[in-house]
């Protein structure tokens, strides 16, 4: 990808958005019949499917936890999700994102209700265009709720960042690659609890606060879409 001369021109980003706007977001719950819970998400050009299986007995048994369930999270980018075909199988990056996604989702789930059990969460990125970890976490949270697993709150996730010295919300590919920094977060709006906060690049103290506030407000927009997707699924089930 060729670096553009400017990422923000006359207050507008390369895709026409203002600094505080997120990309078009679509979420659909319950798309996979064979999974206990599932969700499909499109965020800009990102396309992600999340599935949930469980809770079920953990095998092998020596991995069981006597006082709570194990949340096992897998993040994977399909080989065809990027312009240059990705090598199949787990990578260092996918393992790292799997770990942070699990840590972002765990505080929301009542794991103590299912001792010696496992809940498997899979996040599959079908198409990638910056912000894949936040897209995966957002979809996984909806899939967990769709599976009927008791949760303290949904986990919404989005990234803020800095491009051409301006704090922006929901970075697109060029901003992610050539910008000054990014800050993905995961947030439970009802609990006002941040469950993930990462930062790459350079932010002044004031910029950090501005970026965090902007990401938090962005998560509230994502949260609204999550709730709407679940409400639509439940309404359709009641009609049937």
From TrEMBL:
Q: What does this protein do?
A: Catalytic component of the exosome, which is a complex involved in RNA degradation. Has 3'->5' exoribonuclease activity. Can also synthesize heteromeric RNA-tails.
GO biological process terms, semicolon-separated: gene expression; nuclear-transcribed mRNA catabolic process; rRNA catabolic process
According to its UniProt record, where is this protein located? Cytoplasm
A Pfam short name: RNase_PH_C
Give the main localization category.
cytoplasm
Q: Which HAMAP family match?
A: Exosome_Rrp41
Q: Which UniProt keywords apply?
A: Cytoplasm, Exonuclease, Exosome, Hydrolase, Nuclease
Q: What class of enzyme is it?
A: hydrolase
Q: Which organism does this sequence originate in?
A: candidate division MSBL1 archaeon SCGC-AAA259A05
**Listed InterPro entries:** ExoRNase_PH_dom1 (IPR001247), ExoRNase_PH_dom2 (IPR015847), ExoRNase_PH_dom2_sf (IPR036345), PNPase/RNase_PH_dom_sf (IPR027408), Ribosomal_Su5_D2-typ_SF (IPR020568), RNase_PH (IPR050080), Rrp41 (IPR011807)
- The highest taxon in the source lineage is Archaea
Q: Which CDD domains match?
A: RNase_PH_archRRP41
Cellular component annotations (GO), alphabetically ordered: cytoplasmic exosome (RNase complex)
State the Gene Ontology terms under molecular function.
3'-5'-RNA exonuclease activity; RNA binding
Question: E.C. number, please?
Answer: 3.1.13.-
Q: What is this protein called?
A: Exosome complex component Rrp41
Question: Domain Exoribonuclease phosphorolytic spans what residues?
Answer: 21-150, 153-218
Q: How does it assemble?
A: Component of the archaeal exosome complex. Forms a hexameric ring-like arrangement composed of 3 Rrp41-Rrp42 heterodimers. The hexameric ring associates with a trimer of Rrp4 and/or Csl4 subunits.
Q: Which family does the entry's similarity section mention?
A: Belongs to the RNase PH family. Rrp41 subfamily.
């Amino acid at each position: 990808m060729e670096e553009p001369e400017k990422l923000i021109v006359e207050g507008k980003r390369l895709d026409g958005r203002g600094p505080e706007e997120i990309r078009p977001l679509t979420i659909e719950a319950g798309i996979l019949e064979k999974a206990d819970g599932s969700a499909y998400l499109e965020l800009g050009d990102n396309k992600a499917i999340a599935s949930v299986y469980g809770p079920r007995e953990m095998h092998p048994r020596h991995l069981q936890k006597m006082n709570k369930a194990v949340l096992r999270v897998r993040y994977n980018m399909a080989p065809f999700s990027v312009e240059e075909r990705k090598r199949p199988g787990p990578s260092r990056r996918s393992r790292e994102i799997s770990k942070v996604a699990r840590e972002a989702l765990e505080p929301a789930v009542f794991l103590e209700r299912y001792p010696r059990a496992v809940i498997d969460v899979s996040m599959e990125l079908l198409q990638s265009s910056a912000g894949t970890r936040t897209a995966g976490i957002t979809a996984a949270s909806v899939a967990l709720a769709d599976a009927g697993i008791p949760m303290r709150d949904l986990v919404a996730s989005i990234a803020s960042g800095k491009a051409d010295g301006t704090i922006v919300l929901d970075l697109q590919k060029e901003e992610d690659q050539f910008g000054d920094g990014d800050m993905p977060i995961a947030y439970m709006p009802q609990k006002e609890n941040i469950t993930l906060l990462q930062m790459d690049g350079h932010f002044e103290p004031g910029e950090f606060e501005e970026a965090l506030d902007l990401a938090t407000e962005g998560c509230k927009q994502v949260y609204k879409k999550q709730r709407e997707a679940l409400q639509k699924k439940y309404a359709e089930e009641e009609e049937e």
